[in-house]
Specification:
With 275 residues, the protein is an alpha/beta fold. 23% of the residues lie in helices and 28% in strands. It has a 6-stranded mixed sheet. The chain has a 6-stranded mixed sheet with strand order 5-6-7-11-13-12. A 3-stranded antiparallel sheet has the order 9-8-10.
């Protein structure tokens, strides 16, 4: 089965979505891994999600840390009534698709807009998924990893005065001020890492960390494109910069395998050289 994966489009306009849609014409399923909009309004979210619903393929979507819960719930309720192919994957979180079990973790641990990853909720999901096979996890926030190749590896600015940290869109500005030095760290979630290990999940697809682009196994070893493997941690990269991925699964002698390929919709990779 072939999946079109994207995350972090942060869109309030339709241009990047049109490019994504064109790149997903030949997939079986489309999955949004969160941060669909930069400004969480009903109009913006409806416009972005509806554009993928219109393709007619199964479309699973979760919020990240930018979507507001009441707006997400309201828009998704209307989309579900209008489009039978749309799945608000933040609702049930566990779905069976043919011989695959799709698991979703919306939001982040420090989300301020209503979708917060917490131990109690993960424990409920864990009970459902432990006995399952052929598990694919789609989580906006990646699990904590311990290597510079990890899908949670993030560049940041560290204060030379008090050690405080600035990351994300303000990193360059802070470093340019002269009061911060360039640093890097793994910013994934310990809770999600525990969940992955306890549930025995080998395939993890995440976003959130824009510079955490790439694919590795659970030991941080890089995985090349178009290579089937039995363990795959993949961050497609921020769709707002034209990045996304196609992921394909197959079953070999009773074991699930997956491979990926990257799409560069704007003709350049961004963030290269950071890892």
């Amino acid at each position: 089965m072939k999946f079109g994966l994207f995350t972090d489009n942060h869109s309030s306009k339709v241009e990047i979505e049109e490019l994504l849609i064109n790149s997903f014409r030949d997939v079986d399923v489309i999955v949004s891994i969160g941060d669909n909009v930069e400004h969480s309004t009903k109009e913006n979210l409806w416009q972005v999600l509806r554009s993928f619903c219109e393709i007619g393929k199964p479309f699973y979507a979760i919020p990240g840390n930018y979507e507001t819960k009441d707006i997400w719930d309201g828009v998704c309720e209307q989309l579900s009534k209008r489009y039978s192919n749309f799945v608000n994957a933040a609702e049930k979180q566990v779905y069976q698709l043919n011989d695959l079990n799709l698991i979703f973790i919306p939001g982040t641990e420090d989300a301020r807009r209503g979708f917060t990853v917490n131990k109690k909720d993960l424990e409920k999901v864990l009970k459902q998924v432990k006995p399952l096979t052929n598990k694919l996890l789609f989580t906006h926030e990646p699990p904590k990893q311990d290597y510079s190749t990890g899908t949670d590896f993030s560049v940041q600015a560290i204060s030379i005065i008090d050690g405080s940290v600035v990351y994300g869109r303000h990193t360059k500005e802070a470093i340019d001020s002269g009061y911060y030095r360039l640093g890097a760290t793994n910013q994934g979630s310990e809770l999600i890492r525990s969940f992955v290990e306890l549930a025995g999940i080998n395939f993890v697809f995440s976003g959130h960390i824009h510079e955490g682009i790439g694919a590795v196994d659970n030991l941080g070893r890089k995985i090349e494109e178009n290579t089937f493997t039995e363990v795959l941690y993949l961050n497609p990269g921020p769709a707002k910069n034209g990045l996304n991925a196609i992921m394909e699964t197959k079953n070999v002698d009773g074991k699930l395998q997956a491979k990926y390929s990257r799409n560069l919709l704007l003709g350049r990779t961004f963030y290269e050289g950071l890892k």
